[in-house]
């Protein structure tokens, strides 16, 4: 069946189907004609595939019957337009059918099993990957949006056609968005600029990337767009003569060198000009490379020969040459870039590439369908081209269950620029601009990142927060006992590094919380005169006890129950009483010695959660309240927040007292251990006489008392005769703090000093 006969067969059916929609008779011809235009793009499909597309169209037409777009057009025109964009990329029949059906599940309630039955599992999977989760209930719009992105991106990691259809869908929506309400236009344009345009760039679809950016800019900043578009149009008129002259001279130079070349002028998009103006804080007149030239030659060696021709014709600008052929960009882009000074003294950028490179430069992954030569390897090449980044999505998904966190990692990885660095064995790694040796370590392997302690760049020792530059040779030093530092989260730039560090820290927090919960439950159970049952799975009686207890508490296992106790989700005293009752059923009776240990100290008996001892090694499960900043020697109370662990206040803290009055059962007795493993911060207020060298004298007095200043705040008011300093001072205990305060009082400029309490 040819294209014309297919259209002839289709049009009466379309008109007949639409005639049932009495509310929209004027649009019949528009809708039918739009599908006729699509059929003319499907010449690369077989006759059987044409019939499949026709069946998908009829199904979508029936599903969207009576539905209209904001512009008043029948809704079916949108899926047809999306399928047309996919056909321009020569995507396969499954992707074309998915484009036609992509809104049937979301908007019309069609089920996935029905699509599988009628169109096959591959097409149904594509449609499912494209379907947003609006029908589910989320706490916030942002959470629902994040989960939708997560689902789509993971489907894309399995099959790259998902994102190609999605980008075609978003591109058509952006082209036809003028009919929407202004606030909706702004929201969709912002989302597109932040997520979809960078994804298009990351996958090499530069033509789509540029158009999405341009449309977003027009909707987000209409006045700026209009002003810049007029300026570009005026500049086009002013520079027409010089552009034509450079074009002629370049063509003559290549002809003289006997290199076949297609020379074409190109113009920067309005958005890229705007971005360059913002980056350089310059006016439109200062942006020189508004116009440039693209030269396409038959072979790769001729790219380099052509570069020599250009450099002999015009003078190159030092430092403005980039070889993306030898080192391609992460999205597969290859070209030679050079900036030359034209006869009028202004800069012009030239790009040299082959036809194959140009195909990938414009359409990226889609080029593997668009320019395939037959066989089934082309789609596989496309999948491989995006596989490195797409595979990282799967790894990030494995390390986080939070949709917003997943989306944050994806945003981080959508950097348009990259730096190219080398391992000591000359392997090239592409990292986002601003990446550090920690990012490099995690890019090699997560174990290397976890055990990273130092780095050297180009043979010289370097700090782990050093930003890497293209060409750097980076070597990572590891240590067996090292572990990730929470401070790394503020310096890493890749989603992979960030997710791996967070995963490790969460695991570490869980281990600490489990140990803390076990200690609390053991103390509470001693108050009942019993010892905690064994955790050994080989002890069947103990294992049965734990199983009964976790079934009662609603936890999945012993470890989860102990974590809940440490984080305040369960009260240790209540759990201990239930465990004691279960043990009594099995004939286990309280022991007098254990009972006396459980009631150690008269104060402990009144606390159902027992006693916790603080020595500074507790980790994330125990936090010192920032309102009162306890230090060893202060009387303490502990509050088991719901899901926040143990928060320790001083006994005279007003915040702690209010919590105690409101929620007594969540308090437990806390005491300082005899030996401390670290120092603690105390807040101190110092009133000083203003003058030269005051800060130096205060710092000298604190240093003489063997303490450190960890933070200094002088307020925002201008100092006059006196100034008030607020300091955080690292001390061992109350005695040490008293010595620091005495040393400060002896300093000449100090008028008054005291510890800050809430």
Task: Tell me the helix content.
Answer: 40-55%
- Reading off the top of the CATH hierarchy, the class of the largest domain is best stated as Mainly Alpha
CATH architecture of the largest domain: Orthogonal Bundle
Unreliable sequence segments:
1-33, 133-139, 372-383, 599-609
Structure class = alpha+beta
What this model shows, in words?
- This protein folds into five domains: 224 residues, Hypothetical protein af1432; 137 residues, Beta Polymerase, domain 2 (2-Layer Sandwich), CATH 3.30.460; 117 residues, Beta-grasp domain (Ubiquitin-like (UB roll), Roll), CATH 3.10.20.30; 168 residues, no CATH class; 76 residues, 2-Layer Sandwich (Alpha-Beta Plaits).
- 51% of the residues lie in helices and 15% in strands.
- The protein is built from 31 helices and 20 strands.
- Strands 1, 2, 3, 4, 5 and 6 form a six-stranded mixed beta sheet that branches. A five-stranded mixed beta sheet has the order 12-16-14-15-13.
- A hairpin with a 3-residue loop joins strand 14 and strand 15.
- The protein is globular, with a radius of gyration of 34 Å.
């Amino acid at each position: 069946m040819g294209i014309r006969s297919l259209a002839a067969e289709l049009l009466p059916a379309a008109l007949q189907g639409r005639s049932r929609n009495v509310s929209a008779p004027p649009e019949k011809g528009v809708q039918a004609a739009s599908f006729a235009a699509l059929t003319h793009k499907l010449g690369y499909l077989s006759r059987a595939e044409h019939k499949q597309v026709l069946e998908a169209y009829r199904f979508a037409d029936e599903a969207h019957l009576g539905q209209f777009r904001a512009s008043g057009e029948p809704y079916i025109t949108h899926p047809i337009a999306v399928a047309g964009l996919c056909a321009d990329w020569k995507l396969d029949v499954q992707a074309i059918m998915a484009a036609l059906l992509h809104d049937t599940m979301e908007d019309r309630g069609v089920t996935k099993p029905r699509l599988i039955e009628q169109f096959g599992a591959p097409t149904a999977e594509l449609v499912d990957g494209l379907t947003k989760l609006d029908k589910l209930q989320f706490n916030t719009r942002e959470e629902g949006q994040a989960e939708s992105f997560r689902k789509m991106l993971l489907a894309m990691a399995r099959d790259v056609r998902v994102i190609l259809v999605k980008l075609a869908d978003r591109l058509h929506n952006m082209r036809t968005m003028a009919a929407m309400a202004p606030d909706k236009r702004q929201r969709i344009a912002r989302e597109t600029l932040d997520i979809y345009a960078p994804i298009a760039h990351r996958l090499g679809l530069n033509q789509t990337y540029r158009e999405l950016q341009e449309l977003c800019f027009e909707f987000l900043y209409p006045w700026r767009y209009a002003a810049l578009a007029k300026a570009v149009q005026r500049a086009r008129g002013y520079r027409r003569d010089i552009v034509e002259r450079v074009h002629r001279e370049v063509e003559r130079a290549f002809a003289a060198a006997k290199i076949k070349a297609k020379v074409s002028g190109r113009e920067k998009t309005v958005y890229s000009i705007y971005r360059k103006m913002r980056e350089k804080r310059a006016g439109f007149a200062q942006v020189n490379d508004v116009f440039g030239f693209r030269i396409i030659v038959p072979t790769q060696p001729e790219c380099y020969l052509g570069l020599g021709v250009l450099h002999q014709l015009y003078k190159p600008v030092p430092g403005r040459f980039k070889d993306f052929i030898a080192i391609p960009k992460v999205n597969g882009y290859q070209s030679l870039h050079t900036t030359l000074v034209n006869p009028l003294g202004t800069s012009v950028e030239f790009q040299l590439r082959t036809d194959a490179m140009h195909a990938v430069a414009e359409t990226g992954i889609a080029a593997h369908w668009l320019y395939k030569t037959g066989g089934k390897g082309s789609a596989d090449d496309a999948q491989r081209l995006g596989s490195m980044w797409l595979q990282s999505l799967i790894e990030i998904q494995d390390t986080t269950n939070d949709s917003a966190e997943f989306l944050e990692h994806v945003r981080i990885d959508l950097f348009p620029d990259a730096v190219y660095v080398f391992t000591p064995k000359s392997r090239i790694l592409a990292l986002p601009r601003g990446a550090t040796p920690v990012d490099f370590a995690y890019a090699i392997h997560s174990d290397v990142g976890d055990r990273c302690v130092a780095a050297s760049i180009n043979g010289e020792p370097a700090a782990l927060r050093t930003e890497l530059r293209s060409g750097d040779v980076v070597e990572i030093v590891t240590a067996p006992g090292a572990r990730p530092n929470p401070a790394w989260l503020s310096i890493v730039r890749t989603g992979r590094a960030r997710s791996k560090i967070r995963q490790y820290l969460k695991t570490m927090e869980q281990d600490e919380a489990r140990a803390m919960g076990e200690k609390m439950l053991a103390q509470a159970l001693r108050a009942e005169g019993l010892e905690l049952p064994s955790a050994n799975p080989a002890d069947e009686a103990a294992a049965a006890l734990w199983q009964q207890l976790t079934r009662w508490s609603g936890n999945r296992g012993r470890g989860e129950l102990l974590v809940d106790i440490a984080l305040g989700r369960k009260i240790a005293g209540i759990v201990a009483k239930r465990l004691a009752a279960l043990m009594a059923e099995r004939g286990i009776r309280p022991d007098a010695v254990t009972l006396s240990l459980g009631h150690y100290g008269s104060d402990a008996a009144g606390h159902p959660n027992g006693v916790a001892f603080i020595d500074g090694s507790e980790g994330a499960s125990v936090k010192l309240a920032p309102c009162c900043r306890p230090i060893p020697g202060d009387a303490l109370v502990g509050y088991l927040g719901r899901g926040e662990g143990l928060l320790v206040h001083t006994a005279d803290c007003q915040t702690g007292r209010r919590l105690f009055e409101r929620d007594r059962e969540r308090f437990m007795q806390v005491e300082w251990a005899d030996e401390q493993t670290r120092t603690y911060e105390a807040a101190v207020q110092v009133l000083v006489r203003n003058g030269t060298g005051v800060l130096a004298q205060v710092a000298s007095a604190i240093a003489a008392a063997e303490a450190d200043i960890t933070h200094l705040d002088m307020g925002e008011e201008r100092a006059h005769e006196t100034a008030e300093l607020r300091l955080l001072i690292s001390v061992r205990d109350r005695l040490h703090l008293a010595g620091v305060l005495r040393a400060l009082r002896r300093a000449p400029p100090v008028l008054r000093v005291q510890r800050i309490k809430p």
